[in-house]
Amino acid sequence: TGHVTLDQGFMNTAACTSAITYIDGDAGILRYRGYPIEQLAEGASFLEVSYLLIYGQLPTATQVEEFGNRIRLHTLLHEEMRRFFDGFPRDAHPMAVLSSAVSALSTFYQDSLDPFDPEQVEMSTVRLIAKVPTIASYAHKKSIGQPLMYPDNRLGYVENFLRMTFGVPTADYELDPVFVKALDLLLTLHADHEQNCSTSTVRMVGSSQANLFASVSAGVNALFGPLHGGANQAVLEMLQQIHDSGDDVDAFVRRVKNKEAGIRLMGFGHRVYKNYDPRAMIIKKTAQEVLGRTQNADPLLDIAIKLEEVALADDFFVSRKLYPNVDFYTGLIYKAMGFPPQLFTVLFALGRLPGWIAQWREMMADPTTKIGRPRQIYVGEPERKFVPMASR
Ligand code: CMC
């Protein structure tokens, strides 16, 4: 009953109030808990930012150390859960493995499922942040046929993830401090983005009072798609295709403008930003730094820079306010660090995790929260009389 308004894609409908992230899409502003993303990127680690998003305040040195130590205690996966990875085909997409494994956390950690018990919520929060890097690296190891690496809790969060992903038990793994810093920064830049598709999914699932693991695994699946987190993999594939086809950038941009076969310039455009994505601005600088270190400059970086130049000077993109988004340059950095394209979206998930958790917790703590249940405009048949099988 009452008036129902159609708003496909929620272009103009707020589904909640939130005190976590502020975006001004016209001005290209992003703040977590009031702090500008540029300042957090410069001065805070990913763990500090995770703490900030979840608990609302920047941690003191003691608080972040204590937080890190709590996480450290939970980096191992249950041994039975390790076996879980054997069941998937070798060529499975790691995002599919990740969402399944996160969902499976509900089966192994049944003592932290009650969304209204603060201690259990705290426990599932710490477990998720601790175990998702382990799961992500196992998904990768499985796909390349290498032994799974146990976490090394002497290392920091990002260091540990890199070692589990690239290390082997037969040799010491040498961490490259530039890569550690770059990955920490990229995770920070992905850590929250208010009511995007995956976060809205986490809230929607959680609004039925489903547990945190179940809600986050749904978020991982939402992130999988190429219009959302999957864009970082799609960008690299696009750059590679342009490179391999020997096409020039102008020819590719012409095909995008003609909407040939629905192709889009991946890594461009955003529902909220109608200006340069502030995260892309920071990432572009990092890309140039990290790629400057690898022996042979990646020709794909030149293609990306040229694409950006051509698009930003073209009325098709200017009039539609299409600018590079967070995903445009990330793939190039991940590639330079040695990550295969299939793992790029998993890195996005790792970064977005504290945001999903913070948003879920904010919703659960809000007594005015209601189950998510959109309305519809029915456009089907009016009432008609049932026809028995014999007369159809
Ligand atoms: N390349 C070419 N044209 C585009 C693009 C693009 N990347 N993005 C939007 N357009 C055009 C679109 O064709 C439409 O033109 P017209 O008015 O002639 O039909 C107009 O711009 C508006 O597009 P829209 O699809 O209605 O905009 P939206 O707000 O629904 O979509 C978006 C936002 C991010 C899904 C879209 O810009 C897109 O598909 N971009 C490419 C994928 C991508 O990079 N996604 C990552 C988003 S940022 C981080 C994340 O969420 O993961």
From TrEMBL:
**Record key words, sorted:** Transferase, Tricarboxylic acid cycle
Biochemical pathway = Carbohydrate metabolism; tricarboxylic acid cycle; isocitrate from oxaloacetate: step 1/2
Identify the InterPro entries for this entry.
Citrate_synth-like_lrg_a-sub, Citrate_synth-like_sm_a-sub, Citrate_synthase, Citrate_synthase_AS, Citrate_synthase_bac-typ, Citrate_synthase_sf, Citrate_synthase_typ-I
Tree of life domain: Bacteria
Matching entries from SUPFAM superfamilies are given as:
Citrate synthase
Catalysed reaction(s) here are: oxaloacetate + acetyl-CoA + H2O = citrate + CoA + H(+)
Cite the Pfam families for this sequence: Citrate_synt
Family label:
Belongs to the citrate synthase family.
Protein name as it appears in the record: Citrate synthase
What taxonomic lineage is listed for the species of origin? Answer: Bacteria, Bacillati, Actinomycetota, Actinomycetes, Micromonosporales
